[in-house]
């Protein structure tokens, strides 16, 4: 088997007295896609930040095999960005090229052409010259991805990239990521609450709730009992073929049961895990 | 007017300083750190008073105080120990308190200190002009060297860090450069008002464009208009130069705010 691109060995992260991740051992292989699933506060963002080098392990180590830090692209969950910042979408994408250029040298024609190519790949070409603050939420998300891609990453980290997006936008987003992964031979790690991502996209699933449990086949994890342990709440699987299309919080659904998303057509399980 | 040697020096110093502060102000505004200029400038008062007490060049002692304050504010806020406005409020007051203490300890009346507080075109000597020119060249040179990295880290510090840009170094570098910029400017507009010249040009420029290159160009242009216009007005009206520069800048900013193409045009009509 080939060397893992990223390897966690006994990694623990503490923020003061709070343990975010404890004794994590896992491996991420090249050109694979991994979904991080788990409750809020479970450590998904910490996991991504460890890989990105933004957080240092309190114990253990994270090692990389033939992967330079500059070849990691990161799209954070909530970017602390002032969208009134006086830059165009293309300017932001070009920022992804800055580390490659080094000091003094400004982006030249080749860099701009490459950035425009990426804008084209992610569907931003028409709005590339517009100030970034005038773009829609979905377009800003694509700008963030395009910026990450501009540094020609081998590893792309996405932190809850579709939070707040509607079903159609989520579908489009994951299709785009799938396409980019195949085309650019990317390794992708994606933190998400969106269970649609698993059947459609990823090769591996990592359940993150203080610790990390890897599942090499996504369908292995579709057990309601498993999810109840992971999320700490009763859940009911809404089936769509072999794997659940989404999970519903039973307590919330009793108050106002949400309708299944349009066009599902799948059967709904009557069982409740326990 | 320019036949007066002091006015020629003041005008030259004003042009250099407005160029310097306009560029620094661009980054300070983008980082939402406008108030830090107030803290650094008032801390410089302690340095000026210490210089007078010890008989050392006041620009040197003021530079030491200002850089220490700027970096100090950055360090305590960056570590999340206290919020930026709290840190500025404390450092600001401490600098002023030390200044008052040093003035008290110095025998005799310190008339010169007033010129540092409120600015005086008469106070700019030939030696001052050289210091302003050299420091400004150094500061602007470093800004130019790291311009794109400063831009990227001002836009999103975390992403800059991930992509390998030395974001922490650039943060402290910018604070140090802003401190030096403020110190060399206090003779023109004074400690009390220098922060306005840091903020006003870029704030006015942002009313006209959302493209960084144009914003920088306009900020420099507005900075020059404020300084040159303010110095001419103060000369002819025989009123304090620093106050005149800041009042002129405020009027132009308010007019720009009222007729801002960026704000009036909405999202779809941002000027290109």
TrEMBL record, chain A:
InterPro entries: AAA+_ATPase, ABC_transporter-like_ATP-bd, ABC_transporter-like_CS, Metal_Ion_Import_ABC, P-loop_NTPase. Residues 6-235 form the ABC transporter domain. Residues 251-274 are annotated as: Disordered. Keywords: ATP-binding, Nucleotide-binding, Transport. GO terms for molecular function: ATP binding; ATP hydrolysis activity. Residues 265-274 have a biased composition (Basic residues). Pfam families: ABC_tran. Gene3D superfamilies: P-loop containing nucleotide triphosphate hydrolases. It comes from the Bacteria. PANTHER family: METAL TRANSPORT SYSTEM ATP-BINDING PROTEIN TM_0124-RELATED. This is ATP-binding cassette domain-containing protein. It comes from candidate division WOR-3 bacterium.
Automatic annotation (TrEMBL), chain B:
Pfam families: ABC-3 (PF00950). It is found in: Cell membrane; Membrane. InterPro entries: ABC_BtuC-like, ABC_TroCD. SUPFAM superfamilies: ABC transporter involved in vitamin B12 uptake, BtuC (SSF81345). GO terms for biological process: response to zinc ion; transmembrane transport. Its main location: membrane. One of its GO terms (cellular component) is ATP-binding cassette (ABC) transporter complex. Keywords: Membrane, Transmembrane, Transmembrane helix, Transport. The keyword Transmembrane applies. It is a multi-pass membrane protein. Coiled coil: none annotated. The chain crosses the membrane at residues 6-30, 42-67, 87-105, 117-147, 169-200, 212-237, 243-262. It comes from the Bacteria. PANTHER family: ABC-TRANSPORTER METAL-BINDING PROTEIN, METAL TRANSPORT SYSTEM MEMBRANE PROTEIN TM_0125-RELATED. Belongs to the ABC-3 integral membrane protein family. This is Iron chelate uptake ABC transporter family permease subunit. It comes from candidate division WOR-3 bacterium.
